[in-house]
Amino acid sequence: MFLRTVLSRLLTTLVTLFGVAVVVFVLVRVAPGNPIAMMLPPGASEDDIAQLTALYGFDKSLVEQFFIWIGGVVQGDFGTSITLRQPVADLVLSRLPATLELSFFALLIAVAIGGVAAVIGARRRGSPTEAAVDLTSGAVLSIPDFLWGLLFVLLFGVLWPVLSISGRLDPRLEFDFLTNFVAIEGLLRGRFDVAGSAFSHMLMPALSLALPLAALIAQLLKQNLKEVLIQDYTTLPRVRGFSETQVILRDAMRNAALPTLTLVGVQFTFLIGGTVIVERLFAYGGLGNMAIDAVINRDLPLIQGIVLLFAALFVAINLLVDLSYTLLNPRLRHG
Amino acid sequence: MTMSSTLNIQNLTVSLRSGLPLLRQVNLTLEPGEVRALVGESGAGKSMIGKAVLGTLPPATRVTRGQIFLRGQALDHLNAAQRRHCVAQSAALIPQDPLTALNPVRRIAPQITDPLTRIHGWSAERAQTRALELLDRVEIRDPARVMRSYPHELSGGMRQRILIAAAFAPSPPLIVADEPTTALDVTVQKQILKLIRELQKEVGTAVLFVTHDMGVVAKISQKVSVLFQGRVMEDSTTEAIFSNPTHPYTRALIAATPSYADPARSFSPVPPELIAQMKSKIAQEEIL
Ligand SMILES: Nc1ncnc2c1ncn2[C@@H]1O[C@H](COP(=O)(O)OP(=O)(O)O)[C@@H](O)[C@H]1O
Ligand SMILES: [Mg+2]
To answer: Which stretches make up the ABC transporter domain (chain B) (predicted)?
Structure first.
């Protein structure tokens, strides 16, 4: 039973990724712009163009090109970047940690802010405090992540430049990184100056990504908490002397978090999608920033690699959400 | 008398915000170790009395008159936190529906021991020992396994036993039992009733026992308050209520009790004329 679930899940994952591969492969080729022409200086001869076209395999039929590419992909070879002339797999994997750190830091901020707002709103339900939570979250939610980014660039980059709004790290720091997870590695290896610099560089972009999600969590979790707090099983802890806040945190939270979790999972994948523009705004060296360069330069192999990686990331997050849902819900755990 | 009573309710009136009274000048006392039944038809206000004592009145309602003394302490003189503390130290609840009363995502163990350690200040070992002892006392096989279970893994009867064990665990002076057998099937009802009666005697707890079943009243209580539309119609000893009911409504309730011995005689509902007559009498007094 359990094995069948895992197998069917794995199969859907593979089908999904294959579908994404086909779509992205076709899309980048029907989009206007010739990658070879972009690489050559103006006035290159017909011969030069034909030579390069053959080198990258663009002279073959679409179907042939697809199977050559996908044949490489299953062996871990995603092709070579046209502009950077390095293996796509290496390029993409070197940028992935930056985007992962930023996305998860943003998620952490969103859960913290949204969670606290939800608890306060539920604790003071029916009072002006709850109305204030509703009003604020509604306003925050109506501003998308990239506008928050622009606002922060203006505020903290131009008007009141206290925070770094560009890059991942202070370039003056000296440190031999073993990985590209600069914030986590700095923390784990006790180099708090490195970690501090990484987090302060991430703060503005992460906050831009986090605010809309925080507002959504505040609204949704508060609503779920309020529904749980009128359930019969919250009466006993109240009679037994637990305060309303204790009842919310100890008895209601896990029940309310379950329905919230599914939506947060979906919204988190949207948040990762948002990194593309936000990383650009803050010149943050992650996958999203690289994706924009790749699109501008018509670097087809690189675009394909990045899109596939994003797709794989989304699938992995959905899996993770389902898993934690099962872990949090005792009714499903032994099912 | 006031100071020694476990519970003393004086002139308690609870109303909806619209002003409509749900309880009308209720008077009631409960001496240590005594069992008092609250009887009446559905909607009479039985649960409302328990909620007023335990501080769980619905948000739409409020106490408009009267006082509640728990072990001599006037509850309306306390702030919210003090009141919560006072109620938690003096009283416990056996709820009506065991299927919804336990938190579905928490194991049984913390749901019994949490109040003992965090409110009553017991050590974890002492709470654990007491919980196991009481689960054993309410005839649960393999208490250690049950402690690790989630509510959905246990039957309704098991869950009600657990709730009874949890209520008696801190040996509270007062337990409010709100129709604790109504949601269970008949054979289980009898066992649960027997357990509550036995534990009540062993622990010496006073019990406010809410029921609509005069048959249950006869089995469990020494005193009875008969309620109709939020008003106490008759307050007497159980013996006197059955041998010499003074109020026609009480007589009608007794007559309405299904008799297992003589099913042919069973269930003669309270006559509608009597209900109408009582309603108009209450309405008249309200105007005066
Ligand atoms: N949450 C509530 N809001 C408003 N009225 C209520 C609420 N709960 C109960 N009532 C009303 O209070 C009266 C007494 O209810 P209750 O004490 O539950 O009756 P019972 O004797 O059946 O336990 C009923 O008329 C009921 O409609
Ligand atoms: Mg009731």
So the answer is: 7-254
